[in-house]
Amino acid sequence: MPLAELFLELGAVILALAFVGRAAGRLGITPIPLYLIAGIGLGAFFQLGDAPEEFIHIGAEIGAVLLLFTLGLEYTSAELRDNLKANRSVGVLDLALNFTPGLLAGLVLGFSPLAAALLGGVTYLSSSGIASKVLSDLGRLGNRETPVILAVCVLEDVAMAVYLPVMAALLIGGTLAAVGVNLAVALAAFSLAFFLALKYGHVLSRVIHVQSNEGLLLSVFGLVLVVAGLADMLKVSAAIGAFLVGIALSGEVADRARHLIEPLRDLFAAVFFVFFGLQLDLGTLPGVLLPAVVLAVVTSLTKFYTGWYGAARAGVQTRGRVRAGATLIPRGEFSILIAGLGLGLAPTLGPLAAAYVLITAIVGPVLARFDAQIAPLLDRRMRLAGVPAAVVPTEVAPRPPLAETREPRTD
Amino acid sequence: MIRLDETPLPGVGVRHDFDGRFGKRVGVITHRDGRREIFVARRDDPDACAQSIVLSEEEAEAVADLLGGSTITRHVSKLTQDIEGLAMDWVPVSGLSPYAGHALGDTMMRTRTGASIVAVMREAQAIPAPGPDFPLQAGDTVVVVGTPNGVVRAARLLGGGE
């Protein structure tokens, strides 16, 4: 009875995910690393039938596409343009500080240059999903450092939009000339589509607009899959095609599409993380633990500094800088997405990325809660080192003594 | 004039804030889905929010009305001072009023209080100079003009006191 088997096994997997998701909610952490662990456990201890396995595989591909689509929806083209102009220096610092450690670590671990470049991508991308969840859950949207955090996320997404098609072209491999042609085609197709999305997105939004939710859901989902398929045919990477559709949609259509696609995205993204975990071998995890910890420590520091620098530029004081740095530490969905590209290249890349995401996703939000404790330590360190404690802009009043004005913490 | 800063929050909406006279930063975040979030900064850490309140679009309108309403009342009280001896008031007709559902003439407003009904506001629409057979409804607001004393008595009459 293949149908019974399909439903039973899929249902069991999804119920298991519901269970870990609720546990994560109770603990106040993101469920992504737990989904990965669930996937690893599933692969190690159970043997899924062919039909459920196939569904999970296809579901995972759809999940990756939807993750990027909703990311594209998240930001309007104006926001992308403005941030590219205003926060370029933070973006460049972010890229230099956080891509390099992953790349170097990959080379030290004996990865091929391509796999090392993928590991660079893994360490580079902060999880905008985790960051925005932390910001809204802790009521920090009104904080002064928040625009900086969001700006870094936006710029990383733009960088990823260029990085993914390049990597996709390189991964096809072949002779040097063939790689060059693939690369040129990929970049040309991407730039053209990006230009069209920015320029004519509103036309697409008007055409696709319908009153009924059902009609809109079907048109958007269909369009995303078609463009993703086309992008894959051009070797640009399906996910980037979806990302561009997300950027092109704007206004009311984008708002409604976000609400309509969200449940689908949550379902398929969870399947995506499970599928990633399924492909990993439990036995390889202990071996990558040490490199993962070292990499997590180093890139937590570099990411922390990125946020610190950006917040300092915006005239934010020490505590806010600590929060900005710590909020950017978690890596998440996109690191896993990138690691997934290179599972065939280096056998340890997958487990390394999984352990790494697990560590950073837990450390970051915890650090961000202890800003009041960490900031005085850093202030003292800086004073000892002879660095002026804070470049406080004139319009910000000097901080009054803590003891008198301390208010009950609400976060 | 308060200097209001506008900061776009990518993926969230827009933030408007200003440094309040009492030494704390105050602001409103307009989420893209229409929700508003009012926040006030901490005194010991001006970069952080001490407290924030999320309002639905409807609630935000109500709060805006409340905040803006006080300026309207002030205008009205100024108006009554300007014309000596003449008062004007907006009297709501609640569901408890004995005249909800009755014709306007039944109130015998002018005879009893000396104040005149010059208009009835219904659903943001003004009906000027309504006749005596105009039916009042719960939810209407009656605009009354008269002596200050008469206006107070008119309000009491419509509320069911007299």
UniProtKB/TrEMBL annotation, chain A:
Asked if the keyword Transport belongs to this entry, the reply reads yes
UniProt membrane topology term? Multi-pass membrane protein
Record keywords: Membrane, Transmembrane, Transmembrane helix, Transport
Keyword Transferase among UniProt keywords: no
Q: Where in the cell is it found?
A: Membrane
What are the Cation/H+ exchanger transmembrane domain coordinates in residue numbering? 16-367
Supply the Pfam families for this chain.
Answer: Na_H_Exchanger
- Annotated membrane-spanning segments are 32-49, 55-78, 115-136, 148-172, 178-198, 210-230, 236-254, 266-282, 288-308
What the record says about family reads:
Belongs to the monovalent cation:proton antiporter 2 (CPA2) transporter (TC 2.A.37) family.
Q: What is this protein called?
A: Cation:proton antiporter
Organism of origin is Deinococcus rhizophilus
UniProtKB/TrEMBL annotation, chain B:
Q: Where is the RCK C-terminal domain?
A: 76-160
| Pfam families per record | KhtT_N (PF25991), TrkA_C (PF02080)
Give the source's domain of life in one word: Bacteria
Q: Which InterPro entries match?
A: AAE_transporter, KhtT, KhtT-like_N, RCK_C, RCK_C_sf
Q: What is this protein called?
A: Cation:proton antiporter regulatory subunit
Gene source species: Deinococcus rhizophilus
